[in-house]
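> forwarded from #structure-qc
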Protein backbone atom coordinates (compact mmCIF):
# COMPACT_ATOMS: atom_id res chain seq x y z
CA UNK A 1 0.00 0.00 0.00
CA UNK A 2 1.43 3.40 -1.02
CA UNK A 3 -1.41 5.84 -0.66
CA UNK A 4 -4.35 6.02 1.72
CA UNK A 5 -7.36 8.32 1.66
CA UNK A 6 -9.26 10.02 4.44
CA UNK A 7 -12.76 11.48 4.45
CA UNK A 8 -15.30 12.82 6.92
CA UNK A 9 -18.98 11.95 6.47
CA UNK A 10 -22.38 12.55 8.09
CA UNK A 11 -22.81 15.28 10.73
CA UNK A 12 -19.64 17.20 11.56
CA UNK A 13 -18.22 16.84 15.06
CA UNK A 14 -15.52 18.70 17.00
CA UNK A 15 -12.34 16.65 16.90
CA UNK A 16 -12.76 15.47 13.32
CA UNK A 17 -9.89 17.77 12.36
CA UNK A 18 -7.69 16.30 15.06
CA UNK A 19 -8.50 12.86 13.63
CA UNK A 20 -7.65 13.96 10.07
CA UNK A 21 -4.38 15.42 11.33
CA UNK A 22 -3.52 12.20 13.10
CA UNK A 23 -4.32 10.04 10.07
CA UNK A 24 -2.29 12.27 7.74
CA UNK A 25 0.74 12.64 9.98
CA UNK A 26 0.83 8.99 11.09
CA UNK A 27 0.70 7.84 7.47
CA UNK A 28 3.37 10.27 6.32
CA UNK A 29 5.56 9.35 9.31
CA UNK A 30 5.31 5.73 8.21
CA UNK A 31 6.28 6.58 4.64
CA UNK A 32 2.87 6.68 2.93
CA UNK A 33 1.07 9.30 0.88
CA UNK A 34 -2.33 10.62 1.89
CA UNK A 35 -5.21 11.87 -0.22
CA UNK A 36 -7.83 14.10 1.40
CA UNK A 37 -11.30 13.41 0.01
CA UNK A 38 -13.61 16.42 0.25
CA UNK A 39 -17.33 16.34 1.17
CA UNK A 40 -17.62 12.71 2.26
CA UNK A 41 -18.72 9.94 -0.08
CA UNK A 42 -20.23 12.48 -2.47
CA UNK A 43 -16.84 14.13 -2.91
CA UNK A 44 -15.36 10.70 -3.51
CA UNK A 45 -17.82 10.04 -6.32
CA UNK A 46 -17.04 13.47 -7.76
CA UNK A 47 -13.27 12.93 -7.57
CA UNK A 48 -13.00 15.91 -5.24
CA UNK A 49 -9.61 14.85 -3.92
CA UNK A 50 -6.33 16.56 -3.03
CA UNK A 51 -2.97 15.42 -1.73
CA UNK A 52 -2.37 16.09 1.95
CA UNK A 53 0.96 17.09 3.44
CA UNK A 54 2.25 17.58 6.98
CA UNK A 55 1.53 21.29 6.62
CA UNK A 56 -1.94 20.89 5.13
CA UNK A 57 -3.06 19.67 8.57
CA UNK A 58 -1.12 22.34 10.49
CA UNK A 59 -3.11 24.61 12.83
CA UNK A 60 -6.26 22.48 12.78
CA UNK A 61 -6.10 20.43 15.99
CA UNK A 62 -7.95 23.22 17.80
CA UNK A 63 -10.60 23.79 15.13
CA UNK A 64 -14.16 22.47 15.15
CA UNK A 65 -15.90 21.23 12.01
CA UNK A 66 -13.88 19.44 9.36
CA UNK A 67 -11.42 20.98 6.92
CA UNK A 68 -12.36 18.29 4.41
CA UNK A 69 -16.05 19.19 4.55
CA UNK A 70 -18.74 16.58 5.04
CA UNK A 71 -21.93 15.49 3.34
CA UNK A 72 -24.69 12.95 3.27
CA UNK A 73 -24.75 11.12 -0.06
CA UNK A 74 -27.74 9.12 -1.25
CA UNK A 75 -25.88 8.57 -4.51
CA UNK A 76 -23.19 6.53 -2.76
CA UNK A 77 -25.88 4.12 -1.56
CA UNK A 78 -26.87 3.28 -5.12
CA UNK A 79 -25.09 0.57 -7.09
CA UNK A 80 -24.03 3.07 -9.73
CA UNK A 81 -22.72 5.63 -7.20
CA UNK A 82 -20.86 2.95 -5.25
CA UNK A 83 -19.20 1.63 -8.40
CA UNK A 84 -18.17 5.16 -9.37
CA UNK A 85 -16.62 5.62 -5.93
CA UNK A 86 -14.58 2.43 -6.37
CA UNK A 87 -13.45 3.56 -9.83
CA UNK A 88 -12.32 6.93 -8.48
CA UNK A 89 -10.33 5.26 -5.69
CA UNK A 90 -8.63 3.18 -8.36
CA UNK A 91 -7.95 6.16 -10.66
CA UNK A 92 -6.40 8.15 -7.81
CA UNK A 93 -4.33 5.09 -6.81
CA UNK A 94 -5.77 5.13 -3.31
CA UNK A 95 -5.39 1.70 -1.71
CA UNK A 96 -6.95 2.13 1.71
CA UNK A 97 -9.45 4.53 3.27
CA UNK A 98 -10.14 5.99 6.72
CA UNK A 99 -13.75 7.10 7.14
CA UNK A 100 -14.57 9.41 10.05
CA UNK A 101 -18.29 9.58 10.82
CA UNK A 102 -21.29 7.99 12.50
CA UNK A 103 -22.99 4.64 12.00
CA UNK A 104 -24.16 5.44 8.46
CA UNK A 105 -20.64 6.38 7.41
CA UNK A 106 -19.34 3.18 9.01
CA UNK A 107 -21.79 1.16 6.93
CA UNK A 108 -20.27 2.75 3.82
CA UNK A 109 -16.78 1.74 5.00
CA UNK A 110 -18.04 -1.79 5.61
CA UNK A 111 -19.52 -1.96 2.13
CA UNK A 112 -16.25 -0.85 0.55
CA UNK A 113 -14.35 -3.48 2.52
CA UNK A 114 -16.85 -6.16 1.47
CA UNK A 115 -16.18 -5.13 -2.11
CA UNK A 116 -12.46 -5.75 -1.57
CA UNK A 117 -11.40 -2.19 -0.84
CA UNK A 118 -9.85 -1.86 2.67
CA UNK A 119 -11.60 0.77 4.75
CA UNK A 120 -11.47 1.57 8.46
CA UNK A 121 -14.14 3.49 10.42
CA UNK A 122 -13.52 6.07 13.12
CA UNK A 123 -16.47 7.15 15.31
CA UNK A 124 -17.02 10.85 14.64
CA UNK A 125 -20.34 12.10 16.00
CA UNK A 126 -21.48 14.22 18.93
CA UNK A 127 -24.25 11.69 19.69
CA UNK A 128 -22.15 8.97 21.39
CA UNK A 129 -24.60 6.47 19.93
CA UNK A 130 -22.18 3.70 18.89
CA UNK A 131 -22.32 0.75 21.28
CA UNK A 132 -18.86 -0.64 20.51
CA UNK A 133 -16.99 2.39 21.85
CA UNK A 134 -17.29 4.15 25.21
CA UNK A 135 -16.95 7.53 23.53
CA UNK A 136 -17.21 9.01 20.06
CA UNK A 137 -15.12 11.92 18.80
CA UNK A 138 -17.04 15.15 19.44
CA UNK A 139 -19.22 13.95 22.31
CA UNK A 140 -17.11 15.42 25.11
CA UNK A 141 -17.03 18.83 23.42
CA UNK A 142 -20.79 18.80 22.87
CA UNK A 143 -21.37 17.94 26.54
CA UNK A 144 -19.14 20.83 27.62
CA UNK A 145 -20.95 23.19 25.26
CA UNK A 146 -24.27 22.17 26.81
CA UNK A 147 -22.74 22.65 30.25
CA UNK A 148 -21.79 26.23 29.41
CA UNK A 149 -25.31 26.85 28.14
CA UNK A 150 -26.80 25.43 31.35
CA UNK A 151 -24.72 27.94 33.32
CA UNK A 152 -26.07 30.88 31.32
CA UNK A 153 -29.64 29.65 31.25
CA UNK A 154 -29.61 29.02 35.01
CA UNK A 155 -29.10 32.78 35.55
CA UNK A 156 -32.42 33.52 33.87
CA UNK A 157 -34.03 30.53 35.51
CA UNK A 158 -33.22 31.80 39.03
CA UNK A 159 -33.83 35.47 38.28
CA UNK A 160 -37.34 34.75 36.98
CA UNK A 161 -37.93 31.60 39.08
CA UNK A 162 -38.79 29.75 35.90
CA UNK A 163 -38.34 26.16 34.86
CA UNK A 164 -36.11 26.07 31.80
CA UNK A 165 -36.40 23.16 29.43
CA UNK A 166 -33.19 22.81 27.48
CA UNK A 167 -33.51 20.65 24.38
CA UNK A 168 -30.29 18.97 23.33
CA UNK A 169 -29.21 16.82 20.38
CA UNK A 170 -28.34 13.14 20.34
CA UNK A 171 -30.74 11.63 17.81
CA UNK A 172 -32.01 8.48 19.60
CA UNK A 173 -29.31 8.50 22.24
CA UNK A 174 -29.73 10.31 25.57
CA UNK A 175 -26.03 10.55 26.43
CA UNK A 176 -25.59 14.28 25.78
CA UNK A 177 -28.55 15.02 28.06
CA UNK A 178 -27.39 12.53 30.69
CA UNK A 179 -23.74 13.59 30.90
CA UNK A 180 -24.47 17.32 30.73
CA UNK A 181 -27.38 16.84 33.12
CA UNK A 182 -25.30 15.10 35.77
CA UNK A 183 -22.39 17.51 35.36
CA UNK A 184 -24.69 20.54 35.34
CA UNK A 185 -26.88 19.52 38.27
CA UNK A 186 -30.06 19.37 36.21
CA UNK A 187 -33.35 18.90 38.05
CA UNK A 188 -34.72 16.61 35.38
CA UNK A 189 -33.21 14.58 32.54
CA UNK A 190 -35.52 13.23 29.86
CA UNK A 191 -34.03 10.71 27.45
CA UNK A 192 -35.39 8.27 24.86
CA UNK A 193 -34.13 5.25 26.82
CA UNK A 194 -36.00 5.97 30.09
CA UNK A 195 -39.73 6.36 30.52
CA UNK A 196 -40.70 9.78 31.80
CA UNK A 197 -42.62 9.89 35.08
CA UNK A 198 -44.07 13.37 34.71
CA UNK A 199 -45.84 13.29 38.10
CA UNK A 200 -42.62 12.41 39.90
CA UNK A 201 -40.73 15.17 38.06
CA UNK A 202 -43.40 17.75 38.91
CA UNK A 203 -43.55 16.61 42.53
CA UNK A 204 -39.82 17.26 42.81
CA UNK A 205 -40.15 20.69 41.19
CA UNK A 206 -42.88 21.62 43.69
CA UNK A 207 -40.80 20.34 46.64
CA UNK A 208 -37.85 22.41 45.39
CA UNK A 209 -40.03 25.49 45.10
CA UNK A 210 -41.38 24.98 48.62
CA UNK A 211 -37.88 24.92 50.08
CA UNK A 212 -37.04 28.17 48.29
CA UNK A 213 -35.30 26.85 45.19
CA UNK A 214 -35.34 29.47 42.45
CA UNK A 215 -33.94 27.71 39.41
CA UNK A 216 -35.09 24.57 37.63
CA UNK A 217 -33.17 23.09 34.73
CA UNK A 218 -34.64 20.21 32.76
CA UNK A 219 -32.66 18.61 29.97
CA UNK A 220 -34.72 17.12 27.18
CA UNK A 221 -33.05 14.86 24.64
CA UNK A 222 -34.31 15.37 21.06
CA UNK A 223 -35.26 11.69 20.66
CA UNK A 224 -37.41 11.53 23.82
CA UNK A 225 -41.05 10.52 23.60
CA UNK A 226 -42.35 13.96 24.48
CA UNK A 227 -41.96 17.29 22.72
CA UNK A 228 -40.75 20.38 24.54
CA UNK A 229 -44.15 22.02 23.94
CA UNK A 230 -46.03 19.11 25.52
CA UNK A 231 -43.59 19.12 28.43
CA UNK A 232 -43.88 22.83 29.13
CA UNK A 233 -47.68 22.56 29.13
CA UNK A 234 -47.67 19.67 31.60
CA UNK A 235 -45.15 21.33 33.93
CA UNK A 236 -47.07 24.61 34.02
CA UNK A 237 -50.39 22.82 34.58
CA UNK A 238 -49.10 20.53 37.32
CA UNK A 239 -46.73 22.88 39.18
CA UNK A 240 -47.82 26.40 38.36
CA UNK A 241 -44.16 27.21 37.65
CA UNK A 242 -43.71 29.43 34.63
CA UNK A 243 -41.59 27.59 32.05
CA UNK A 244 -39.61 28.32 28.93
CA UNK A 245 -37.92 26.26 26.21
CA UNK A 246 -34.40 26.74 24.90
CA UNK A 247 -33.38 24.60 21.92
CA UNK A 248 -29.59 24.55 21.76
CA UNK A 249 -29.36 23.18 18.21
CA UNK A 250 -26.19 23.48 16.18
CA UNK A 251 -24.12 25.32 18.75
CA UNK A 252 -23.59 21.79 20.11
CA UNK A 253 -21.99 20.59 16.88
CA UNK A 254 -19.36 23.33 16.60
CA UNK A 255 -16.59 24.92 18.59
CA UNK A 256 -13.06 24.14 19.60
CA UNK A 257 -12.68 20.49 20.66
CA UNK A 258 -11.89 19.68 24.28
CA UNK A 259 -8.58 18.10 25.26
CA UNK A 260 -10.40 14.75 25.64
CA UNK A 261 -11.72 14.87 22.09
CA UNK A 262 -8.37 15.92 20.63
CA UNK A 263 -6.58 13.13 22.46
CA UNK A 264 -9.20 10.52 21.53
CA UNK A 265 -9.13 11.61 17.88
CA UNK A 266 -5.32 11.54 17.79
CA UNK A 267 -5.17 8.02 19.25
CA UNK A 268 -7.91 6.60 17.04
CA UNK A 269 -6.52 8.23 13.88
CA UNK A 270 -3.13 6.67 14.49
CA UNK A 271 -4.66 3.23 15.13
CA UNK A 272 -6.72 3.40 11.94
CA UNK A 273 -3.60 3.91 9.86
CA UNK A 274 -1.77 1.12 11.68
CA UNK A 275 -4.63 -1.26 10.93
CA UNK A 276 -4.52 -0.44 7.22
CA UNK A 277 -0.78 -0.97 7.20
CA UNK A 278 -1.27 -4.30 8.96
CA UNK A 279 -3.48 -5.30 6.05
CA UNK A 280 -6.74 -5.14 8.04
CA UNK A 281 -10.01 -4.01 6.52
CA UNK A 282 -13.58 -3.36 7.63
CA UNK A 283 -12.64 -2.53 11.24
CA UNK A 284 -14.28 0.05 13.49
CA UNK A 285 -11.85 1.67 15.94
CA UNK A 286 -12.93 2.88 19.36
CA UNK A 287 -12.05 3.13 23.03
CA UNK A 288 -13.04 0.84 25.90
CA UNK A 289 -11.79 2.05 29.25
CA UNK A 290 -8.24 3.14 28.50
CA UNK A 291 -7.79 0.68 25.65
CA UNK A 292 -7.98 1.44 21.95
CA UNK A 293 -10.00 -1.39 20.43
CA UNK A 294 -11.19 -2.44 16.99
CA UNK A 295 -13.98 -4.73 15.85
CA UNK A 296 -15.38 -5.89 12.54
CA UNK A 297 -17.65 -3.03 11.49
CA UNK A 298 -20.75 -5.20 11.11
CA UNK A 299 -20.21 -6.66 14.59
CA UNK A 300 -19.44 -3.24 16.05
CA UNK A 301 -22.68 -1.82 14.68
CA UNK A 302 -24.67 -4.69 16.18
CA UNK A 303 -23.44 -3.88 19.70
CA UNK A 304 -26.31 -2.17 21.46
CA UNK A 305 -25.70 1.29 22.79
CA UNK A 306 -27.10 1.13 26.33
CA UNK A 307 -27.78 4.14 28.50
CA UNK A 308 -25.85 4.05 31.77
CA UNK A 309 -28.83 3.48 34.08
CA UNK A 310 -26.74 3.82 37.25
CA UNK A 311 -25.60 7.22 36.09
CA UNK A 312 -29.18 8.17 35.26
CA UNK A 313 -30.36 7.16 38.74
CA UNK A 314 -27.44 8.98 40.35
CA UNK A 315 -28.34 12.18 38.50
CA UNK A 316 -31.93 11.78 39.67
CA UNK A 317 -30.92 11.17 43.29
CA UNK A 318 -28.61 14.18 43.37
CA UNK A 319 -31.01 16.61 41.70
P1 LIG B 1 -23.71 9.33 10.13
O1 LIG B 1 -22.48 8.78 9.51
O2 LIG B 1 -23.44 10.56 10.94
O3 LIG B 1 -24.55 8.29 10.82
P2 LIG B 1 -25.56 9.21 7.90
O4 LIG B 1 -26.39 8.13 8.47
O5 LIG B 1 -26.27 10.33 7.22
O6 LIG B 1 -24.62 9.92 8.94
O7 LIG B 1 -24.55 8.52 6.86
C1 LIG B 1 -23.58 9.30 6.17
C2 LIG B 1 -23.42 8.76 4.79
O8 LIG B 1 -22.93 7.41 4.82
C3 LIG B 1 -24.71 8.64 3.97
O9 LIG B 1 -25.10 9.85 3.41
C4 LIG B 1 -24.31 7.62 2.92
O10 LIG B 1 -23.54 8.24 1.91
C5 LIG B 1 -23.41 6.69 3.71
N1 LIG B 1 -24.20 5.53 4.14
C6 LIG B 1 -25.14 5.49 5.11
N2 LIG B 1 -25.70 4.27 5.20
C7 LIG B 1 -25.12 3.53 4.25
C8 LIG B 1 -25.28 2.16 3.80
N3 LIG B 1 -26.14 1.33 4.37
N4 LIG B 1 -24.49 1.74 2.78
C9 LIG B 1 -23.61 2.57 2.20
N5 LIG B 1 -23.43 3.84 2.56
C10 LIG B 1 -24.16 4.33 3.56
O1 LIG C 1 -25.75 13.08 14.40
C1 LIG C 1 -25.49 14.39 14.85
C2 LIG C 1 -26.77 15.19 14.83
O2 LIG C 1 -26.44 16.51 15.20
C3 LIG C 1 -27.91 14.64 15.68
O3 LIG C 1 -27.71 14.94 17.04
C4 LIG C 1 -29.08 15.33 15.05
O4 LIG C 1 -30.26 14.56 15.23
C5 LIG C 1 -28.71 15.34 13.60
O5 LIG C 1 -27.31 15.21 13.53
C6 LIG C 1 -29.10 16.60 12.85
O6 LIG C 1 -28.70 16.40 11.52
P1 LIG C 1 -28.69 17.50 10.37
O7 LIG C 1 -27.28 17.94 10.21
O8 LIG C 1 -29.15 16.77 9.17
O9 LIG C 1 -29.59 18.59 10.80
Amino acid sequence: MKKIGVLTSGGDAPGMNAAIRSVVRTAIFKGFEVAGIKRGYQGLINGDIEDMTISSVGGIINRGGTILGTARSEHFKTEEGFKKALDILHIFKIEGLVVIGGDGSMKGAEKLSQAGFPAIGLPGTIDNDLGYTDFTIGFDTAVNTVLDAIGNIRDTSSSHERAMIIEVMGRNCGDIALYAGLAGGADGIIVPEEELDIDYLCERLIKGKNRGKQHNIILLSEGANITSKELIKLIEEKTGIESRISVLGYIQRGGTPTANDRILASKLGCRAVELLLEGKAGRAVGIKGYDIVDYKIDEALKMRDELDHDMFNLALMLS
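QC bot note: The first strand starts at residue 3 and ends at 8. The chain has a mean pLDDT of 97.
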